[in-house]
Design brief:
Layout (H helix, E strand, L loop, with lengths): L7 E10 L2 E5 L4 E5 L12 E8 L5 E4 L11 E9 L3 E5 L6 E4 L16 E8 L5 E5 L2 H7 L11 E10 L2 E6 L3 E6 L12 E9 L5 E4 L4 H18 L3 E2 L7 H8 L3 H13 L3 E3 L4 E3 L2
Parallel strand pairs: 3-5, 13-15
Antiparallel strand pairs: 1-2, 1-4, 2-3, 4-5, 6-7, 6-9, 7-8, 9-10, 11-12, 11-14, 12-13, 14-15, 16-18, 17-18
Helix pairs in contact: 2-4
Length: about 280
């Protein structure tokens, strides 16, 4: 059988070279670079190695046997991005593995970035080059367990594993499937992004609904500070209040009308502002 990238095979050390040794199965020779040796090897020694293609497309080998295989999905870390090719993930050997753009979201802004995490298994393209194959929804669904009740309204860690408008699927705390709707986002997350989220609802099937937004009472302080700063920058007065159109509030403050009114209410209650004929002003 011809040797192929991704195989784990036992080969014999045939001859030495300045940069390593060549291994053979009796028909093909494969380089084992010094950097890929876990210990020095000797002539005629039989060595178990993982096969991959080097940067020139030649078959090479490593004595480090990665967890990644053609059968099982494993979690890997993104090491880099190439715009017209895809993203690269580390599997423990010198050469990173490409996840093709064909297996990534169409929008480049949704692509993983360096440090993000992808579950992948190995596969070949038509030219038998080694690629990483991202795990589908079915893989996470098979691993998933129902969320415990105590998760409700608590912070969790989620790994984005599928772009599914109008939101994304998230693997929560390494055990439960969650959904983050676009209305609960502060930005549209990348595939492979690890996020701090809050469980807003545990559904009967054990999956969860999530939010990346702060709780309303946490947001009030930030929104109130935004309004106070605006007042300070404009002589202590502004012509915006309860009757101001939502579009104007959004344009000026970047807040929804509801968030704006909640923040105004907090400032009035704390006696930091007062209403006047045209809007509100800082309390004297």
């Amino acid at each position: 059988m011809a040797l192929r990238a991704g195989q784990v095979v036992t080969l014999k050390v045939e001859r030495e070279a300045a940069f390593g040794v060549f291994l053979t199965d009796g028909n093909e020779d494969v380089l084992l670079h010094k950097k890929e040796q876990t210990h020095p090897v000797e002539l005629e020694e039989e060595v178990e190695v993982f096969l991959y293609q080097d940067n020139e497309g030649r078959l090479a080998s490593s004595m480090t046997i990665p967890e990644a295989s053609f059968e099982d999905y494993v979690k890997t870390t993104v090491t880099g991005t190439r715009y017209n090719t895809g993203v690269f993930v580390g599997i423990g050997i010198q050469k990173d593995v490409l996840v093709s753009l064909d297996d990534l979201p169409q929008r480049r802004t949704y692509w993983p970035e360096e440090g993000d995490q992808l579950y992948i298994r190995l596969k070949h393209d038509q030219k038998l080059r080694l690629l990483g194959d991202p795990a589908p929804y079915a893989f996470f669904n098979l691993m998933a367990k129902p969320a415990p009740e105590e998760w409700n309204n608590t912070e969790v860690e989620g790994l984005v594993f599928a772009q599914r408008e109008p939101g994304v699927n998230v693997f929560v705390n390494g055990q439960t499937i969650g959904f983050l709707h676009e209305n609960e986002m502060e930005h549209w997350p990348r595939l492979g992004e690890v996020m701090k989220l809050r469980v807003t609802n545990i559904k009967p099937d054990g999956t969860v609904l999530l939010s990346a937004r702060p709780r309303a009472y946490e947001a009030i302080d930030t929104d109130a500070e935004l309004i106070l700063n605006h007042l300070l920058e404009h002589g202590g007065q502004m012509a915006y209040g309860d009757k101001t159109p939502p579009d104007t509030i959004q344009d000026v403050f970047g807040l929804s009308k509801a968030a704006f009114k909640r923040a105004l209410g907090r400032l009035l209650k704390d006696k930091k502002i007062e209403k006047n004929e045209t809007g509100v002003q800082l309390k004297k």
